[in-house]
Specification:
Elements: H1 6-26, H2 29-35, E1 53-54, E2 67-69, H3 77-93, E3 98-100, H4 106-120, H5 124-128, E4 138-141, E5 156-163, H6 177-201, H7 208-211, E6 218-225, E7 235-240, E8 246-251, E9 257-261, E10 264-267, E11 288-291, E12 298-305, E13 315-316, E14 334-335, H8 336-346
Parallel strand pairs: 1-10, 2-3
Antiparallel strand pairs: 4-5, 5-6, 6-12, 7-11, 8-12, 9-10, 9-11, 13-14
Helix pairs in contact: 3-6, 4-6
C-alpha cells in the first residue's frame, strides 16, 4: 500500500475484527441482517470477481452432470457393472454425480428440507440459545471460518454430529430432531452402498473403503441461504473442495450450486444427491461453490462422511493398491483430524486444502 502507514493498516485490521465480532455477537446470522431489512450487502461479505468463466450448460449435452440410477444395483451382474462403470467415469471426469432411486423416500427428503427451514424460521431468541462456536452434538452459527476467511458467505449453517456417537434426542432442537435422526439413518445406508460401488469402480474389493473406516462418521450440515439484495457482490459459498471422504448433498428447487470443470463453472440442476471422493487425483475432489440469490431462502443439506471428530492416529493417503512406479503418490499421509483442523483454520479462501498435503 503506497502512502499507507503501519498504524493505518493495523487500524483497518482492528476495525474488521470489531465488525466481525459485532456480527457474531448478534447470534442472528445473515438471516438476521435480512430480517432487519438491510438493503445493501455489508463490505464484510464482498467477494472479488471470480477468474473462471461461466459456461451455460442448459441444453448442452457435453456439460451435463451425470445422473446415475441405483435401482438395479446388485440385481443383475451386467447392469451392476454398468452402474460401476458409470460411477468410475463420472468420478474421473467430474468428481461429481447425482443419484436417483437411491432408496431414500421422497417424503423423507422433503421433511428434511422442511426441518432445516423450520429451524431457521423459528423465533430468534430460541435459535440464540444454541448459537455457538464450541464443539457440541448440535452447532448453529454463521460462517464457521468467520475470523479467518477473506470474505464472509451469505449463509447460516447448523452442524449435527450423528455418527459414530449418535446424539441424545434432547441434544437436538425439537423442531428438526426426529427428521435429523431418521435422515441420518437413511444416508448411512446409502453411504455404505456408495462406498462399495466406488471401491469396485477403483478395481478394489467392495469392502475396501468401508474397511478403511470411511463410513464410520457422519456430520449433517443444514445450510440456509437468505435472499440477497446484491447477489453479484457476494457468494453463498466460496469455491472449495470438501474435507471428507464422501459428500451426499440434498438441495432444494432454487439451485445455485456450480462445479468447476475445465476452468468453467457448470450449473448442477437440483436433484437429491451429489457425491465427492478423493483417491490420489484418480477420482476428482471437485471444487464447487454456491451463488448468492435474490429469490431465497435456499435450503440445502450436506452430509459429510468424515471421522474428523475421532482422536485416531490412523493415517490416510493415496490408496496403496492404486500406486505404481508410473503413478506415485501425489499426497502425503495425514490423519483425518489433522486435515480437518487445517481445513477449518484456513477457512474458505478459494484455495483447496489438498494443496497443503501435496508431495
Amino acid at each position: 500500500m503506497v502512502g499507507t502507514t503501519t498504524n493505518e493498516i493495523a487500524g483497518t485490521v482492528s476495525d474488521r475484527v470489531y465488525e466481525l465480532k459485532a456480527f457474531d455477537d448478534t447470534k442472528a446470522g445473515v438471516k438476521g441482517l435480512v430480517d432487519a431489512g438491510i438493503g445493501k450487502v455489508p463490505s464484510l461479505f464482498h467477494h472479488p470477481p471470480d477468474k473462471f468463466g461461466k459456461a451455460s450448460n442448459l441444453g448442452n449435452t457435453e456439460h451435463v452432470i451425470p445422473v446415475i440410477d441405483l435401482s438395479e444395483v446388485g440385481k443383475d451382474p451386467s447392469t451392476h457393472q454398468e452402474i460401476v462403470r458409470r460411477i468410475r467415469e463420472a468420478s474421473e471426469k467430474w468428481g461429481f454425480f447425482q443419484v436417483v432411486n437411491h432408496g431414500i423416500p421422497v417424503s423423507v427428503l422433503s421433511d428434511m428440507k422442511d426441518g432445516v427451514r423450520k429451524f431457521y424460521e423459528q423465533d430468534i431468541e430460541v435459535k440464540k440459545e444454541v448459537y455457538t462456536r464450541e464443539l457440541k452434538p448440535f452447532v448453529y452459527n454463521s460462517n464457521f471460518d468467520l475470523y479467518s476467511s477473506p470474505a464472509l458467505n451469505w449463509r447460516d449453517t447448523f452442524a449435527c454430529y450423528l455418527s459414530p456417537n449418535t446424539p441424545k434426542p434432547e441434544e437436538l432442537p425439537e423442531v428438526c430432531r426426529d427428521i435429523q435422526l431418521e435422515y441420518g439413518k437413511h444416508v448411512m445406508k446409502l453411504g455404505t452402498t456408495l462406498f462399495e460401488l466406488l471401491s469396485e469402480a477403483l478395481g478394489l474389493h467392495p469392502n475396501h473403503l468401508k474397511g478403511m473406516g470411511c463410513a464410520e462418521g457422519l456430520i449433517t450440515l443444514g445450510h440456509y441461504y437468505p435472499s440477497c439484495p446484491e447477489p453479484e457482490l457476494t457468494m453463498g459459498t466460496t469455491k472449495h473442495s470438501d474435507n471428507d471422504f464422501l459428500t451426499v448433498l440434498l438441495q432444494d428447487h432454487i439451485g445455485g450450486l456450480q462445479v468447476l470443470y475445465q476452468d468453467q463453472w457448470i450449473d448442477v440442476p437440483p436433484a437429491p444427491g451429489a457425491l465427492v471422493l478423493m483417491t490420489n487425483d484418480r477420482f476428482k475432489s471437485v471444487e464447487h461453490r454456491v451463488l448468492a440469490n435474490s429469490v431465497g431462502p435456499r435450503i440445502s443439506v450436506a452430509c459429510f462422511f468424515s471421522t474428523g471428530l475421532l482422536p485416531s492416529p490412523k493415517l490416510y493417503g493415496p490408496i496403496k493398491e492404486l500406486l505404481s512406479e508410473d503413478n506415485p503418490p501425489r499426497y502425503r499421509e495425514t490423519t483425518v483430524s489433522e486435515y480437518v483442523t487445517y481445513f477449518i483454520a484456513k477457512g474458505l479462501d478459494g484455495i483447496s486444502a489438498l494443496q497443503h498435503f501435496r508431495i
